[in-house]
Amino acid sequence: MKKKIPLLFIIVFFSTFFVGTGQQGSENLDTQDSIRVEELYALAKEKSDRQPSEAKKYLYQIVQYIDSLVTSRKSKNNYFNKRKADAYHFLSYYERREHNFDEAAILAQKSIDIKLAHGLDSLLATSYHQKAKAWISVLNSMEDGIKQLKKAEQVAKKYKQTGQLLEIYSSLGSAYGVTNDTVNSMKYYNKSIHFVDSIGTDYQKAAMYANYAAILRRYKDYKSSLGYLQKAIVLHKKSNNKIGLESGLYALGVHYSDVGQPEKGITYLKQAIDLCVELKSEAVIPFRYLKLSRSYEAIGNYKESLEAYLKYHKLLEERNDVEEAKKLAKLETVFAYEKQKVRDSLGFAKEKSELKLITEAESAKKRLYFILFIITVLAGITIGYLIRRIYKNRVLKAKEELEKNKKELEDFTAQLVAKSKEQEALHKELEQLKTEVGEKESIQNLQHLATSKILTKDDWYTFKEKFIIAYPSFFSNIKNKGYELTQSEERLVAMEKLNLDTGQIANMLAISQDSVMMNRYRLRKKINAPKGAPILEYLEV
User: Fold this and answer.
1) Alpha-carbon span 293 to 285, nearest angstrom
2) How far apart are CA 134 and CA 521, in angstroms?
3) What CATH number does the domain located at 241-333 have?
4) What does the alpha-carbon distance between residue 45 and residue 147 come to, in Å, rounded to a whole number?
5) Which of 63, 224, 255, 452 is deepest in the core (most CB within 10 A)?
6) Angle between helices 242-258 and 285-298 (to 10 degrees)
7) Contacts of 351 (CB under 8 A, 6+ apart)
8) Is 364 exposed, middle or buried (0-12, 13-18, 19+ CB in 10 A)?
9) Distance (Å, whole) CA 94 – CA 299
10) Distance (Å, rounded) from C-alpha 189 to C-alpha 346?
11) Residue 117 and residue 129: Cα distance in Å, rounded?
């Protein structure tokens, strides 16, 4: 008698087979996609130190490829989220190195958002660190940059990431150095050097030594600075890091110029320029030529100095940096004028000798001319004094009126800033009260009050009226150049004109600091401002 296979067993067997086959197919697709992403990532890594422009292309391809995947598969596999966050992080680094600071800050924030959304908290230290560097550059706000670095430090300590800590400490040392806080600057630099000597890779040691050399040069400790800089260059050569090597050679050229050896500095500056050309570093190469021009000028080689200077000017124009090119054209004119003045002085000496003979022969006539000249000068001085006095009184009166208008604008702005601070304090108290009191509706009403705009519609009209009185041609000049600003864009540039920092602008408009940064970025794109040029300066030129 044959045993019958139970029906239930058959159903379970085939169900398991088909489910397993489906899972295997999904896993195969994940494997193929991850291999493709890993190939692109490996190519980007390979090009990172020698062909950064190529590395950027591969990183953008990673983002596009992952975005094209099916959403359900991406959510199951955190590998793709991590690689996308990594791509944004390194793109932020390259954009920052090319002085595209707005874009660098936004890319760093994208990396942070992905890591926060997908539980990649242990990887946040690098992204906070990158964002801090971009913020310091684009917003010119060292305080906000230091806050981001402190966040990075907390994450690195929490997950015991000593490799990250040593780089963060180096950046903190640099940031405090810019603010002239010598104590904190040296404190963090010494921490970074201690860490890197203990556990750092050759790549990290080279970076830390180079940063430390820069701060020592700032404090004019040239001997110690040179030692660390030379060690950094040796390590860059060892690891074949051409980007780091170029920076090191340039720093060496600057060092020898600072210590009175420009001839030696020129040798290293030329080597740095050759590497810049090889790396296609369009953002930094013009300024290498500028330093080379000044070094040639220091040794009296004006021909080479002018050639390097013209190269600097040409490269800036190629970068479409219109504002810098205008400034350089003016400087070039002055440079040429000074050279011509030297030539004229030689001709003048010859003419002076000839004039001396003529003067001796016609001394009597000269005395008469001299007397007439004195009378004319005295009359001119008297008339000039009277005219100047009248003009000075008018200018003084106009200046007093302008100062009065500016003072009124400053007082009104100060009131808005004070309201902003009071509202921020109220918001904090409400957050605490929210956890203690159960009356949700009243709390929500108060919270709505705390988050309402400081700069209301009426306040804005008052603010703009006072602003136009203090700066009568500000908005009209911008409009005459063909820029049609929206009301929110007018508010942004007006507050920039008054030197309000990002935090103050954000509080007054009841938006986040990242939103202020994004508004700046959009305005820069709208007016087609060159990369790296401050928006306000570009609008006012």
Assistant:
1) 13
2) 13
3) 1.25.40.10
4) 30
5) 255
6) 20
7) none
8) exposed
9) 36
10) 53
11) 18
Spatial distance between the Cα atoms of 226 and 243, rounded to a whole number of angstroms: 19
- Contact at 8 Å (CB) between 68 and 296? no
Centre a 10 Å sphere on the Cβ of residue 190 and count the other Cβ atoms it contains. Answer: 13
Q: Give pLDDT tens digits for 325-379.
A: 444 554 554 455 454 544 444 454 555 556 666 767 677 777 777 888 899 888 8
Q: pLDDT tens, 35-64? A: 999 999 999 888 887 788 888 999 999 999
291-309 pLDDT, tens digit each:
999 999 999 999 999 999 9
Q: What's the length of the chain? A: 541
Query: What are the tokens at 328?
Result: 């350089």
The domain locations on the chain are: 241-333, 362-451, 473-541
Q: What is residue 431's three-state secondary structure?
A: helix
HSE-CB of 261 using CA atoms within 13 angstroms: 10
Give the separation between CA 449 and CA 452, rounded to whole angstroms. 5
CB 286 within 8 A of CB 319: yes
Helix or strand or coil: residue 101? helix
Query: What Å distances lie between residue 186 and 148, 213, 217, 342, CA to CA?
Result: 19, 12, 13, 46
Question: How many CB atoms within 10 Å of residue 144?
Answer: 19
| The pair of three-digit structure tokens given for residue 372, joined into one six-digit string | 């007439």
* Spatial CA neighbour of 298 closest among 241, 254, 346, 360: 254
> Are the beta carbons of 197 and 166 closer than 8 angstroms?
no
- Report the 10 Å Cβ neighbour count for 374: 10
CA distances 7 to 2, 13, 17, Å, are 15, 10, 16
How far is CA 253 from each of CA 173, 222, 256, 287, rounded to the nearest angstrom?
23, 13, 5, 13
Whether 469 and 523 have beta carbons less than 8 Å apart is answered as no
In the DSSP assignment, the letter for residue 320 is T
- Identify the architecture of domain 473-541 in CATH: Orthogonal Bundle (1.10)
DSSP for 200-238 reads --HHHHHHHHHHHHHHHHHTT-HHHHHHHHHHHHHHHHH
Tokens encoding 383: 């008339």
